Amino acid sequence: MATLTARVLPVPLRPGNGRQLVERNFLVYKRSWIVFVSGFFEPVFYLLSIGLGVAQLVGDFTLSDGTVIGYAAFVAPAMLASSAMNGAIFDSTYNIFFRMKYAKLYDSMLATPLRPWDVATGEVTWALLRGACYSAMFILVMLVMGLIESWWALLALPASVLIGYAFAGAGMALTTFMRSWQDFEFVQLATIPMFLFSATFYPVETYPDWIRWLVEITPLYQGVALERAFTTGNVSWTLVINALYLVAMGTAGMYVASRRLGKLLLK
Question: Do the beta carbons of residue 101 and residue 251 sit within 8 Å?
């Protein structure tokens, strides 16, 4: 008798499969819209308490091009950049750690034609969409309060998405190395100093030279520089370097995250 040999062919992958994970997250948050919306208020409260309250005690700022702006207009773009960072970090660390370690969501996903790169792409895309919603509403608040000085502010929203991309990619990569919830203390150890010292509340020129150099190589500073330049109109070619830094950070993070997910889940 002839022997029949069955050959199992791999299911061909289609580009853009990460959208299925985006759809899944949308359906989850559709039932918890209050949780989704609450992320918008934190930067607004910071702006109202510091940007407006402290502004009464602080004088105006003179930018490098000679433009004089109020303290609230100086702080607001930094709050926008920090909001993009915090939202991306939260989505790409705590949420992903729970889905990976406890909900076992990715184990079941990788049993389908989805691959680790699709998972990384889907999660980062969702983080960017969520962050873009917050940023758009925050920019609207800035506009209503008269804190936007230039039409370059039209690029503030794409800049926020870029900041989110950088931190979402890096955050997801770092999460694949986390062993327990206690490891997330290192996330706070990194993000809080960046929030406080990345020229958020005062110009970077106030630092001594060696500290200024250290601040200027941090990722959040790149985002603050972009947002402040666009909302004040103080634009220069050096912003290209800031943007390329964030692109490289996000892409490297996504690559590491996809490789690590494959190693951890496809054993």
Answer: no
Euclidean distance between CA atoms 104 and 216, whole angstroms: 39
Q: Grade residue 154 by pLDDT with cuts at 50, 70 and 90.
A: very high
Is residue 149 within 8 A of residue 233, CB to CB? The reply is: yes
β-bridge mates for residue 69, sequence order: 61
| Sign of the torsion angle spanned by Cα atoms 130, 133, 139, 145 | negative
Mean pLDDT of 209-225: 93
Own/partner contacts of 37-45, CB < 8 Å, gap of 24 or more, are 39/87, 39/90, 39/130, 39/134, 40/133, 40/134, 40/137, 40/138, 42/83, 42/86, 43/79, 43/80, 43/82, 43/83, 43/134, 43/138, 44/138, 44/141
In the chain, % of residues over pLDDT 90: 26
Instruction: Name 243's Cβ contacts closer than 8 Å, sequence gap at least 6.
Output: 159, 162, 222, 226
Residues 6+ apart with CB under 8 A from 200: 75, 78, 79, 82, 224
Residue type, 189: L
Question: CA-CA distances (angstroms) from residue 73 to 78, 150, 223, 229, 243?
Answer: 9, 11, 16, 11, 22
The DSSP output letter for 4 is: P
Give the pLDDT score at 266. Answer: 64
Closest Cα to residue 96, out of 133, 134, 122, 114?
122
Cα distance between residue 226 and residue 84, in whole Å? 12
